[in-house]
Task: structure prediction
Amino acid sequence: MASHQVICISSHPIEHGYYGITHLGGYGWKLTKIQVIQAIESGAESFYTLVGGNRTEIGIVNAPAGKYLRTYADDQWNDNLLELPECL
Result:
């Protein structure tokens, strides 16, 4: 399984929170949120952030308004994705 570090996001205005994320990017790549969800669900790829030297996996949350991506570590969902800078 390929594993990719996410270093930036593209999103709609921040008031949309996780639902506002449209793209995730890394070194030399940028994918839509849907592409990342499909890659994770297929089991072919995984995605993570590296904050303060700590690796945090990205998981899929199934919510009434649809699926979205969020980081997960130490049995807790956290806000690492929303803390990343906007992709250029």
In short: The radius of gyration is 12 Å. Residues 13 and 79 are 16 Å apart (CA to CA). The longest helix spans residues 33-42.
